[in-house]
Specification:
Blueprint (H helix, E strand, L loop, with lengths): L1 H11 L2 H23 L10 H7 L2 H69 L1
């Protein structure tokens, strides 16, 4: 059930869903208004039963708005998730590089201290 509910935004924002909502909007709203103004189209006007079956204007517009909002929300969530994963990966790599750098610096300091001690020893023997 949870998997189905999480897939709803994706289904609502699919191209097919948006096409259906746009078709219904144009057929029930735009075309219906045109048939009222243009007498030649009067016979092609959607009947009351067709309007009832396919939904009213408010539902069509609401569904279209919900689809677009769900799609953009899903896209933003996916982008943020991807960005967080990249950030975590880069942070881990940076921490590893910093640790390696500190180890190299420590080795160089130990070498320099050894050389300085050797130089002092050589100078005192002369």
């Amino acid at each position: 059930m949870n998997q189905f509910l999480t897939s709803i935004p994706t289904l609502l924002s699919s191209k097919l869903s948006i096409f259906i909502y746009l078709f219904l909007f144009f057929y029930l709203v735009v075309f219906a208004v045109l048939t009222m103004w243009i007498p030649l189209l009067k016979n092609a006007q959607p009947s009351a039963n067709v309007q009832l079956i396919l939904g009213n204007y408010t539902n069509v517009l609401s569904a279209l708005g919900a689809s677009l909002a769900a799609g953009s929300g899903t896209l933003i969530h996916h982008s943020l998730t991807t960005l967080h994963k990249k950030h975590d990966t880069m942070h881990d790599e940076l921490q590893k590089t910093i640790t390696e750098l500190h180890e190299k610096i420590d080795r160089l300091e130990q070498r320099n201290q050894g050389k300085d001690a050797q130089k002092i020893h050589d100078d005192s023997n002369k």
